[in-house]
């Protein structure tokens, strides 16, 4: 279903998308954070892109683990350990279940999200990246279980990610830096949620454009 | 944005290199991963390591030296350092008695130090500082932020560690000081993160941000600027209220720290001290120790914070003991 | 203008009161006329008195104490103090060995100290500091301004006076250091004099003032902002050129002082230090002593100055000797 | 010709005039100085006004000396010792020659200006207050010697003061704070010269309005 070569394509697609959304991401963390989230994401994306060839040559689980470790030593801040935990968590799960079905991949994604929740001691509804990631993980699991096509899954997950992002607007923040601001955060989107939406869109678009994923005519 | 810089990506390394060069008698810089350690490794004591995002100078690298920290891990500007930095620093300064991390309570710092601690091959403990009383402490938030009170923790625990105390005692003193310390900050202007290139928030000439942290996060509320005395009265009231909430006596000997956030002239800091000292004395406190200056900054923010630490004999003794770092020096 | 103040007319007194309260172990404040003196009057030594307009803190009050000044006379912001202040200060700290005035070379300071000296009932001498090499020294001008190099004069002459040297020797050392010291400053922003309520000059985000003093006077020229390295290279070149013009060797042991003008973060000062140290070393100098921080400020100006003092054994020994003041402290 | 009561009137007139010219004076010292000249002048004027009654009761020479000593301990900066020297110088001269003719007053004024020149080691043409004061002193001497009426003298000295002020515009500064600025001072008036012009106008206007000085009809 997915190999290290595809993973590398996703990595580059994600970098392109993050760079393209600089203004939005930066602005959000400036409004109710400390303004470094975009530059943190950029630094992480560059570091992973820098792995390039190396990733392609690794087995998928090792590639994911390498990404996690690289992010851990590159991003810093709150998002660094969280995204690192995501990839390390995914890698661990795929070591048990090879990625040979959408269900396995969904399960790995879900495990990554669980790892974030554990590391950050956070849940849905706290105005963080999890408000994008948790609904996406849930839908991914259920769509895969229903046997939906890769195409269908990608289209729906984009939608779910955008809704998750939008849902942070009306929330009070109870985790992360914005939690110090009380009512003042209402009306603002969460920066980490925005990054996740951008990254999920980038990967899904890559999936949708991949000829090998096109439904046979 | 107007700053002395060449390329934003090299700013931190260039600055740390200058720091290490100017103070080569005291400290040593390691790169990849980055940390600052004492020039002369201390022997047979608990190793004290702190760290956090850059932009708060002299915190933490300026507090590396005799009687204070063994190493500091600077992250990118306002961004927690990464676990590999902490591991390398611990490896370099561990002196057989375990490692104490002193961590300001921010999600990023907590998580990165936590992951480092999980991988650490030495006995270890962590003191979380959380002195900022602008943030209401409740189960619904990640809790209070660590701000300028961290300097007091680093100084006093540094002194205790130097005396040969064990890891548990060092942690206990750090936790005690944190519990007895409250801070609150106010900003007149925003700071500008070099990588962002423009001020983190916009604020008019007639407004201030009350209850800011040290990262240019907006404060609890924006309010019209008033006389310094009125602003300071609110800050002192917040601290006194916090002492009461923590069930601390609102009298007794205190250390009063008036901390500049980066762009506030000493003349104003002393004016603030003057008013704060009067109000705290009227409240029943006795100011037996004072510190006024830029000790925990937010890059180039105009603003200041007040920190009050309720002293006892133990804390005062460790505050007074000799210290030789870039940022604090006395008794030697 | 955004500042912590109550009424502009009371700012100075409130600030000085805070200073005296925070450092009551070290200094004492007298009002009407205003001066700051050592808490414990020194005995049987030349009395060192400096002073000048306020707004340069910690200069000069922050340098009152053991091993440095006996008293400081603060004027209004950027305005020379008046002779009655100097006379009262001299009366209070004179210890039988005469009085040495250390005066930054500005028309106002020179004339006020001169009138005080004319009325002084004690043996006296004056050291005029004039380290600013941005001002071309010629018979057509009042001469070079005294800026951050003054700190080095106060420290070293303070040490010599403490050792019991006589008035003439103290003056001679001060003059020698002044002769061997050059400084140059650059501003990124203007400062705001509280009484004026707005910035002294307007400057765009893409310009700097090269060759500024410490009063918000415009510099020698306005120029586009460039990389820090390029700006610093020009500053170092000006100092090296000045050394040559003064017939000083452009090699040998030096003290390098990177001084912040008030609103410049330490991170930038250390970046400046890094580049300046490299350039000066390449030039043939050996940097054997360093000082980085806000030592002679221009209220809230963003900017920095470089000061290079050519050391000899005598100067270095007096730089290293113990000092205990608010602004400089080591060895005790 | 002039007594302490009149002197007190002049003092108040000068204060009013300085306060009325705040913007101009402040601006000039901000442009090529350090921005404190207005506040220095104001502080000085308030201090002298504060002497009020005391001045009126003193003999003229003592009143002038008191003004000088008060300015010396109040203004500071460059202008403090200079204006102090002016009044102390005037007082000394009038001790020798009682102020019973315009010539004696002109001579005392001249002595005051000489005292400023000595204290400041400056001459005409250096872009300072002296570029107003020196021509005024010269004209005052010569008009008094020619036996001109008080009225005539006042009218002409106002003119001379204004011309003196204007003459500083094209000068290079070679004394005072502005001397560090080289060519950049050209085109700006000197702040101290402006204060002197304002004060001279204020005193001359007072003279012109004083009924005892009106030419008999
Ligand atoms: N405990 C947490 N759990 C999940 N996500 C979190 C948590 N704390 C912070 N975040 C996410 O991290 C983002 C901020 O990341 P970043 O700006 O890179 O780090 P920092 O907050 O340290 O400056 C927030 O927008 C939020 O989505
Ligand atoms: N040596 C001097 N001789 C005569 N006038 C001088 C001299 N130096 C300065 N001045 C006058 O003093 C004025 C500045 O006064 P002020 O601003 O009060 O003091 P400072 O220059 O110390 O800030 C100048 O505009 C100039 O007219
Ligand atoms: Mg952030
Ligand atoms: Mg951050
Ligand atoms: Mg002045
Ligand atoms: Mg002036």
Protein architecture, described:
The complex is a heterotetramer, with 2 copies of chain A (217 residues) and 2 copies of chain B (332 residues). With 217 residues, chain A is an all-alpha fold. In chain A, 70% of the residues lie in helices and 0% in strands. Chain A has helices at residues 4-20, 22-32, 37-57, 60-72, 79-96, 102-120, 130-145, 150-167, 191-209. In chain A, helix 1 packs antiparallel against helix 3 and helix 1 crosses helix 9. The two termini of chain A are 20 Å apart. In chain A, 58% of the residues are buried. Chain B is α/β, with parallel strands linked by helices. Chain B is built from 8 helices and 14 strands. The radius of gyration of chain B is 19 Å and the shape is globular. Chain B folds into 2 domains: 11-180, 3-Layer(aba) Sandwich (Rossmann fold), CATH 3.40.50.10440; 181-318, Hypothetical Protein Tm841, Chain: A,domain 3, CATH 3.30.1180. In chain B, helix 2 (83-93) packs across helix 3 (107-119), helix 4 runs antiparallel to helix 5 (167-179) and helix 6 crosses helix 7 (266-283). The mean pLDDT of chain B is 96. In chain B, the strands form 3 sheets. A 6-stranded mixed beta sheet of chain B has the order 1-2-4-3-5-6, sandwiched between helices. A 6-stranded mixed beta sheet of chain B has the order 9-8-7-12-10-11. Chain B has a two-stranded antiparallel ribbon with strand order 13-14. The chains are: A mainly alpha (217), B alpha/beta (332). At the B-C interface, helix 1, helix 6, helix 7 and strand 14 of B face helix 1, helix 6, helix 7 and strand 14 of C. The complex binds adenosine-5'-diphosphate (2 copies) and magnesium ion (4 copies). Residues 29, 33-34, 36-37, 77, 177 of chain A line the site of one magnesium ion.
């Amino acid at each position: 279903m997915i190999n290290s070569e595809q993973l590398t394509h996703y990595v580059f697609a994600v970098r392109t998308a993050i760079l393209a959304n600089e203004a939005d991401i930066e602005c959000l963390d400036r409004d109710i954070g400390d303004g470094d989230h975009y530059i943190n994401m950029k630094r992480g994306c560059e570091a992973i892109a820098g792995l390039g060839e190396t990733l392609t040559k690794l087995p998928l689980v090792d590639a994911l683990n390498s990404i996690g470790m690289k992010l851990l030593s590159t991003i810093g801040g709150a998002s660094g350990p969280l995204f690192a935990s995501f990839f390390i968590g995914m890698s661990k799960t795929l070591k048990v279940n090879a990625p040979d079905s959408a269900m396995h991949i969904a399960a790995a994604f879900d495990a990554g999200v669980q790892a974030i929740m554990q590391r950050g001691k956070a849940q849905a509804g706290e105005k963080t990246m999890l408000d994008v990631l948790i609904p996406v993980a849930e839908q991914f699991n259920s769509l895969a279980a229903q046997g939906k096509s890769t195409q269908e899954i990608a289209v729906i997950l984009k939608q779910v990610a955008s809704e998750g992002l939008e849902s942070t607007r009306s929330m009070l923040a109870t985790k992360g830096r914005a939690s110090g601001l009380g009512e003042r955060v209402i009306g603002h989107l969460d920066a980490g949620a925005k990054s996740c939406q951008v990254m999920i869109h980038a990967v899904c678009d890559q999936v949708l454009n991949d000829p090998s994923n096109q439904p046979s005519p | 944005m107007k700053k002395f810089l060449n390329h934003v990506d090299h700013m931190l390394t260039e600055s740390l290199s200058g720091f290490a060069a100017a103070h080569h008698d005291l400290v040593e810089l390691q790169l990849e991963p980055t940390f600052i350690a004492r020039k002369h490794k201390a022997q047979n004591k608990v190793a004290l390591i702190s760290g956090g995002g850059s932009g708060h100078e002299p915190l933490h690298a300026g507090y590396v030296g005799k009687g204070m920290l063994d190493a500091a891990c600077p992250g990118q500007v306002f961004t927690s350092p990464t676990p590999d930095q902490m591991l390398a620093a611990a490896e370099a300064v561990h002196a057989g008695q375990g490692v104490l991390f002193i961590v300001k309570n921010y999600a990023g710092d907590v998580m990165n130090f936590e992951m480092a601690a999980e991988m650490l091959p030495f006995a270890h403990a962590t003191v979380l500082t959380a002195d900022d009383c602008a943030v209401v402490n409740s189960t619904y938030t990640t809790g209070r932020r660590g701000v300028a009170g961290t300097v007091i923790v680093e100084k006093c625990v540094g002194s205790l560690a130097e005396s040969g105390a064990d890891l548990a005692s060092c942690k206990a003193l750090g936790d005690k000081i944190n519990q007895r310390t409250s801070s609150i900050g106010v900003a007149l202007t925003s700071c500008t993160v070099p990588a962002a290139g423009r001020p983190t928030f916009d604020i008019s000439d007639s407004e201030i941000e009350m209850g800011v942290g040290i990262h240019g996060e907006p404060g609890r509320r924006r309010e019209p600027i008033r006389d310094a005395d009125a602003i300071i009265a609110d800050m002192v009231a917040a601290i006194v209220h916090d002492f009461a909430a923590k069930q601390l006596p609102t009298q007794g000997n205190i250390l009063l720290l008036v901390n500049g956030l980066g762009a506030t002239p000493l003349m104003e800091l002393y004016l603030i001290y003057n008013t704060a000292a009067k109000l705290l004395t009227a409240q029943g406190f006795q100011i037996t120790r004072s510190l006024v200056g830029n000790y925990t900054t937010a890059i180039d923010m105009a603003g200041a914070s007040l920190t009050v630490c309720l002293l006892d004999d133990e804390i005062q003794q460790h505050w007074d003991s000799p210290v030789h770092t870039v940022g604090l020096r006395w008794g030697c």
